[in-house]
Specification:
The protein has 102 residues and is an all-alpha fold. It has 4 helices and no strands. Helix 2 packs antiparallel against helix 3.
Length: 102
């Protein structure tokens, strides 16, 4: 029984490559690493709206989900970088942590 689950999981991982119609929009475009935070956020919002609206095939939904995950990583990197810059600036200021709490 576990073998069947493993085979099914392998088929799911192959996704669009297995049985996808020619020209189907299931390939996930790589996320441009130079994408700005606002651009990534706005595209992520559109991906979420598309998923919430439904009406897409399973393959299309999976592709949208993967794109959303990649966009969320871009946003997280931007936010982590901003947090590090703020922390560094606060550490350099004479009143340090107190400036960030005001």
């Amino acid at each position: 029984m576990a073998k069947a689950k493993t085979d099914g999981a392998a088929d799911a991982e192959q996704g669009a490559a297995v049985g996808a119609e020619p020209g189907a929009a299931t390939a996930v475009e790589p996320v441009d690493s130079t994408l700005g935070y606002e651009q990534a956020r706005d595209e992520l919002i559109e991906v979420v709206r598309s998923l919430e609206a439904g009406g897409t095939t399973l393959e299309e939904s999976l592709a949208l989900w993967e794109r959303g995950e990649a966009l969320a990583k871009v946003c997280r990197r931007w936010l982590d970088g901003a947090r590090a810059r703020l922390d560094a600036a606060l550490a350099e200021s004479p009143d340090g942590a107190e400036a960030g709490r005001a």
